[in-house]
C-alpha cells in the first residue's frame, strides 16, 4: 500500500494499481520531482532577464538591488493577482451568460431564481418594479460586467460588508475599484523597477484580493444562483465508487457551471439514454471532480467522483468514457494518461486547450447541441472499454448550504436570521466557527489534514463550513451527514440535533467562499458578537492548498478581518520579514493575519486558541465542554486510517459503530 500518500481507501486502492503498472500520477511525480529549495522558500526572483536572481549564500540583493523581502512580496502579490484573475474571469463569463440568457440568445438557460435576481438588482440599484425578469436580468448582467472595468469607483458589493470593515478599507486605501484595474495594476507594480516597498506592495495585494472576494467571486456565486438556482440541502454520494460498471461514465472536471449544467440535462435526455442502450450500456452516469463537481452537486445532487488529486485516478479505473474539462485545476498529465485507456479527454473552453485532447468548443449560444454532442461522443466510446477496476468505496453526504439556506434553517420563512447561531456561540454551545477550505497537494497526505482538522474542530464544538476540494474530502469521509453529529462535542451536537444539520456544512465551490464572507457579515451585524468580522470567534484554514487561487482567497479573508491558517509549507519560509509583515503587520492594519503551519495538529491548536481569545475579547463566558450534555464516544482513538473511514461508512449504513 502506498504509505502516507492518502488516507482515502479508494485513492490508495487505485494508487496501488498505478504503482504496480508503472503509471505516473501526481503522487509519483511529486516524489520524483523535489522542489527547488531556493524557490520553494521564497528566495528566487525571475521578474526580469538580468536574473533569475537566487538569494543564496552571501547574496542579499538581486542584480537590480532588490531586497529579499521585496522580491518575496512581489511573488506573493503576483500569485494573488493570478488567483484573483481566475475567479473573476469565471465571474465575468457568468455575467455574459446571464446577459445572453436574458436576451433569449442562449437556449437551454433560464432565470431560475427570481428572488435572488431581485435581491441582487436591489443591491446594484437596478429597478425591479413590474419589469419582467429578463429586463431586470439584462440590467443586472450589464452592471455586473461593468464592475470589471470600473476605473475609479469602488465595487458595488463592498457595501455588503459590515460598516466598520468598509471604513477600515477606506482608511487603508484598499477598497478595490474595477476587478481588471486591480489585477493589471498589481502586475504593473511588480514589474522590474517599479513598486519596491514591501509593505506598499502588500497593501496592493490586499486590495487586489478584495476585488476577488467581494467582486469577481461574489458576482460569480450570485449569477450562478440566478441562472441555476440557489443551493439548498441535497443528498448525494462521493468517491470513485460512484462510477458505474455498466453505464457510460462521463466525468466533468474544472470550475464553471455553464456547460456542466447542460450536460446534466443531456445525460438524462431519454433519446441519449436510448442511444447508450444501443451500445450495450444500461444508462449514462455523470460524476464530478473538483469544483465543477461542487457546482452540479449543490444544485442537482450529481455524485462526486473525487477531489483534485483523484482526477487521474478516475481515468485509471478504466471506467471513464469521457472526461470533460473547462478551466482551472486540470492537469496536462490527463492527456498521456487517457491515451493509455479508452478515455476521451475533451477540452471545452476557448481559454484552456491541451495539446492532444479532443477539443469541442463550448459556446453558450449553442450549449444544448454542444452538450448533446459531448454526451454522444462519450456513448460512442463505451464499446472501447477495456478492464474496469472501480473501488467499491463511496459515502453519503448532504451538500448545498447556501448562506440563504443557513439563515432559513434558523427560523424558517417568517423568522430567518443568524440569531440562533449567534446565541449558541454567545452561550458557549458552539465555541466558534471555522472555514476549512481549499485544494489537495501531493506534498502532504491527501485528505489527511482536511479530515483531521475538521474532526478535531467539531469535537471541540467548533462549527465547520467547507468549500472546494476540502468539502469533497469531508463528503468522502461521511462528515457531511447528520449521522456524523456523534463526532461533535456536546454543545455543537445539541445545536445540530435541534436544527437537523450536519456539524460540517458544505457551502459550494472555490468561488463560493464568497458565501462565507456573507455568513460572517451576517453574524457580525446580527448583534452580540461585536460589529466586525475581526471580532468573531472564527478562523479560515486551507490545510492542503496548492493553487494561486487559494492565496487570493486567504488574502481577501485577511483583508476582511479573519485569522487565516495555511497548511503545507510557507512559500516564503526563508523570508522572515515577509512572514512578519503578513502576520503581525497585516493584523495591525486589518485585524486579520496570515500564517503558514505545516503541522495540522498545530493548526487545530492555533485555531482554538484564537477562537478562545476572541471569545474573551467579546467578554463571552469561557467555553466549558462539561456544560452541555455529554456526547457519546464514536470511534476509538483519533488515528486517521482507512479503517476509521470504513467505520464511518458502516455507521451510515445503520450499523452502530
Ligand atoms: Fe533579479 Fe531584480 Fe530582475 Fe528580480 S527584478 S530577476 S531581483 S534583477
Ligand atoms: S478545485 S483551486 S484544487 S479547491 Fe476549486 Fe480544488 Fe483548489 Fe482547484
Descriptive report:
This protein is an alpha/beta fold and 657 residues long. It folds into 3 domains: 76-228, Substrate Binding Domain Of Dnak, Chain:A, Domain 2 (Up-down Bundle); 240-384, Rossmann fold (3-Layer(aba) Sandwich), CATH 3.40.50.2030; 432-620, 3-Layer(aba) Sandwich (Rossmann fold). It is built from 26 helices and 16 strands. It has a 6-stranded parallel β-sheet, with helices on both faces. Helix 9 (198-228) crosses helix 22 (513-526). The site of iron/sulfur cluster has 14 residues, from loops.
- The second-level CATH architecture of the largest domain is 3-Layer(aba) Sandwich
Protein structure class: alpha/beta
Rg over CA atoms: 24 Å
Overall average residue pLDDT: 93
Proportion of residues in extended strands = 5-15%
Q: If helices are DSSP runs of H or I spanning 4 or more residues, what is the number of helices?
A: 26
Query: Terminal Cα separation, in Å?
Result: 25 Å
List keywords for this structure.
alpha/beta, single chain, Substrate Binding Domain Of Dnak, Chain:A, Domain 2, 3 domains, 6-stranded parallel beta sheet, 657 residues
Write the layout of secondary structure elements.
Blueprint: H1 9-20, H2 26-32, H3 37-40, E1 44-45, E2 53-54, H4 68-102, H5 114-124, H6 133-149, H7 163-172, H8 179-189, H9 198-228, E3 234-238, E4 248-254, H10 257-267, H11 270-278, E5 284-289, H12 290-300, E6 304-306, H13 311-316, E7 322-325, H14 334-340, E8 344-347, E9 358-359, H15 367-381, E10 395-399, H16 403-409, H17 412-415, H18 419-427, E11 432-436, H19 448-459, E12 462-466, H20 468-476, H21 490-499, E13 504-506, H22 513-526, E14 538-542, H23 548-559, E15 563-566, H24 576-590, E16 593-596, H25 600-617, H26 642-652
Parallel strand pairs: 4-5, 4-7, 5-6, 7-8, 8-9, 11-12, 11-14, 12-13, 14-15, 15-16
Antiparallel strand pairs: 1-2, 3-10
Helix pairs in contact: 4-6, 4-8, 4-9, 4-23, 5-6, 5-9, 6-9, 8-9, 9-22, 9-23, 10-12, 10-15, 19-25
Bound molecules: iron/sulfur cluster and Broken Fe4S4 cluster (MSK).
